[in-house]
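In response to the reviewer comment on reproducibility (Comment 2.3), we provide here a single inverse folding case reported in full, input and output, so that an independent group could reproduce the run without further information from us. The structure tokens appear first.
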């Protein structure tokens, strides 16, 4: 990254439970909208269904998406709240939301295939992808799959696919991802928001390796990115770094995760421009696997602080949110 720069009712109930956000009694009824590219549903595109969802609603709108590939830019604006996108394929790979903008044409922040600003968003059983870098000669370009700038977002059984800068976790974000898959090359989880990844596979796909995270956590924000009981993999051994600080106070913790031999054991944290990783808030805690060795370049979270760095501490905020 450039440092400058069942049925419908059951689905609706599941979505409410998965986000941890119960609609108040005064809310209108939950809504289900359907999408199928072949014209067999209410809408042919995901964006058309989002546009049709009630604005500023505390009742959940569940948008079911028939298996297939949907090549479109998807935007969930801030006035489309409590939206769930539910893929209907048998696996997340069967429902794919994809586009191919890049930083060279749109700027990094505007290159995403999906933009989410509406609070209480949820996604399950689908893939969000930016396939720009799959074209010959475009490898290594910044091309965001998901630009997330929303409070209380939940992702379950989701794949995020990209190259450099796959996933922007922007500063309004408080989010939870579980049982999912994220891949990229350089800084492919980046930004200043707060997010927990749980039981998620994070894959560095470049043969020369690269840093997974580029956190820009504001100094006044206690929590940034937590990888909890995740699995870190890569295309090659002894090449992948855990991260580098996009801004000086970036906060990242890899906790109780499996670090495979892809990790560059001698130096898993690196500098970014004038930002020293040693001054950032980077820690590991009780990780396992061949990539989990310890040395002076691998700060370990003290046991005395472990209770203050749990998934729930990261997610609770001031409202006690608990999507787990």
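Designed residues, in position order:
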């Amino acid at each position: 990254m450039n440092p400058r720069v069942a049925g419908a009712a059951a689905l609706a109930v599941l979505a409410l439970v998965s986000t941890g956000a119960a609609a108040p009694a005064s809310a209108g009824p939950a809504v289900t909208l359907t999408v199928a590219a072949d014209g067999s549903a209410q809408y042919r595109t995901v964006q058309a269904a989002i546009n049709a969802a009630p604005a500023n609603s505390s009742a959940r709108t569940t948008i079911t998406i028939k298996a297939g590939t949907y090549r479109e830019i998807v935007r969930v604006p801030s006035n489309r709240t409590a939206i769930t996108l539910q893929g209907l394929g048998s696996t997340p790979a069967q429902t794919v939301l994809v586009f191919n903008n890049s930083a060279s044409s749109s700027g990094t922040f505007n290159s995403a295939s999906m933009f989410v600003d509406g609070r209480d968003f949820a996604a399950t059983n689908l893939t969000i992808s930016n396939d720009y870098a799959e074209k010959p000669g475009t490898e290594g370009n910044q091309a965001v799959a998901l630009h997330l700038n929303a409070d209380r977002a939940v992702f379950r059984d989701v794949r995020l696919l990209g190259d450099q800068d796959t996933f922007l976790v922007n500063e309004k974000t408080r989010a939870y991802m579980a049982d999912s898959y994220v891949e990229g090359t350089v800084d492919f989880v980046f930004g200043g928001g707060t997010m927990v990844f749980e039981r998620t596979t994070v894959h560095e796909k470049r043969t020369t390796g690269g840093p997974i995270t580029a956190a820009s956590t504001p100094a006044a924000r206690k929590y940034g990115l937590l990888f909890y009981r995740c699995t870190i993999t890569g295309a090659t051994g002894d090449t992948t770094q855990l991260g580098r600080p996009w801004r000086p106070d970036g906060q990242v913790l890899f906790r109780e995760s499996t670090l495979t031999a892809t990790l560059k054991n001698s130096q898993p944290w690196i500098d970014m421009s004038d930002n020293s990783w040693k001054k950032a808030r980077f820690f590991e805690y009780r990780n396992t696997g061949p990539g989990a060795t310890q040395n002076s370049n691998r700060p370990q979270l003290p046991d005395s602080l472990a209770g203050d760095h749990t998934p729930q501490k990261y997610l609770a905020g001031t409202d006690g949110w608990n999507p787990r």
